[in-house]
Amino acid sequence: MVFNFEDENGTQQMKILTVDPEDILQDKIREISCTLDEVGIISHKDLGSASPGSLGVDVVIGTGDFSRHSPVGEVLLKWRTHPETYLVPCWIGTNRDTFEKCCLWPALTVDRFGEQMEASCLCDWLAEVADWQQNRMHVGVSHSFSEHSPLELLTSLSLRRASGTLTVFDQEGNQGRFHLLEGSLSGAELKHLRDEEAFGDLLSWTAGSYHWEPNGSASGPSHCGQPLERLIAQGLQLIRDANLLFHFLSELGQKISRTESEAALDDGAVPYFQQIRKLYHLIEGDMSARDVIEISPLSKPRTMNALAKWLSLGDLQSRPLEDQPRKHRLLIVDDSKLMCRALETVFSKDPRFEIVGIGHDGYEAIRLIEEREPDAVTLDIQMPNMDGLTALKHIMIRNPKPVVILSAFTKETSRLTYDSFKYGAVDVFAKPSAGTLEEMARNAEELRNRIIQASCVRIEAAQYIRRAKAGNTASSSDADQEEVNAGIVQQRVIITLCGTGGFPSLLKLLLSLPRSQSLPPIVACMALSEKVVEALMPNLQKDSQLRIQEAQDEAPLTPGTCYLYSHECRYQLEKIKKHIHLKASANGNGKHRPFDTLLYSATEALGDQTVAVLISGTGEDGVDGLRCVRQAGGQALVLSPRACLKPELPQLVLDQGYAREVRTPCDLANLLEGYPRSYPAVGAT
To answer: In this structure, is residue 101 part of a structural domain?
Structure first.
């Protein structure tokens, strides 16, 4: 295979510079040399004092240690920011995310990241580079920066001495305009930045898109008039200087704070002094460097440069990374690129989150979960190739993660919401929609908090229990009637308190229990509205092997049956001639404490035969009731806070010593099945 690169003097031999301090590439380079014709290999160790621009290098391949102060990273950055070599493509032997966390990198679209430098892959990349060299001057009307990076685009416009208006868009929808006149910048506005600062900020972008209108507004502002070539060289040097910040910080998420020193603010003659002074005083308390960059009145490279200077002079101090709260790693999956950008905006400004990937269908969700190991996943339902529910089933079997379904079709009462919980989702949330600014801000904050809660939930692998039905409905009803005719009644009742966020676990519990006359009646009070409970009933009755009924006043309890009701109601147990009945209770003393009301009555009616279960929740309703259960000698079980979406109430009960902790809903089902039961005859005294 022959690669010829054409320059103004004709064809030239391809030259590969290797930056390989640990000699990792030796065998690979020999293999490439044997595979490719007319390829020259240069080691950075042999460069000496030669100027990068004098060597005619076509590509740079770097591998080794990419940690902070990495010599490999330093050499790569030197080549990328040199005015004569910044268009030399680089293969960087590490993960892109890892590299860009510790380096502000002015990218080329043909750059390659990855540790697997097989000879065949390198050959394919060199062919891609050759094609890129021939076509990089072509500028379309509208493109993503993944097709033409800002560095490539601006270089092309400079070499063509272009006139027109370049409109750019970042991932958050912010828009900027750059007015060009014969290869010079005549004016620019990007967010709050102007002219050179706007230009320098654009060079540091890694995502977004652009629209080019040649000659469209060539007569725009003319107070700047700086040649693009000079601005590119200045911007690259500023980016190189900005990377000094990583000599003081491990990553931009690290916290910084001001000290009493203000040594760097003594010289009022430095460029942009007023903005720099304003930036310094914007740093209040402990802030991450990323947050400071976000609010800075200056471009990202110049802000990083200022932070590096202040840290070196002692005007700022940094907190060790290990002392900082760990970020919640989030994967976003939605087929709508617009929605993905909106969600990125919602989460990227919150220092508690790190967005580790974006997928657009179920297949990508499964792959990215395995590659990126997120703490939580937002998953859309309606997607091409593989929809959200199908993906959810695979995720819960192959690599269980807390999943929050985010869809426009998931109202509380919808079948999709029920199925989402059935197949393992931790929470369901309606997609952000338009409204007043206050409403949108509240919705965004609630979504962020719900994702934080979800990411803390311990997820068990899906266990789809499919027990054989205990006969058909008719035979089961006959068996029930025979037991009633025989005068058999229960002595135990399982009281289940399903607090806020507990329905997914309650559903798993109910679907794990068998239909059996040896199972005591279950009375479940749920922190859901009456309307939602009513809508859930048909789905539960269809899927559960238990008999599922809505609680009714004066109803006698039957073994093997679960009675559900909303916490908006109040029910209590009443013992009538050894039979246990449900009885509606009026609100008393101005307090509505449905959990405690049910538990107090159960303790009075059943004594030490009471079995109580708490799943998730907030507040204190249920704490006193569980204390009464324990004092009466009954059994009290709490689903582990680590398995609950709302762990506050379970943790409070455990801290008081009122209940025993159970790890998972399936463990809970096994315990309830195994409790001893006795059913004395009616009329026994």
So the answer is: yes
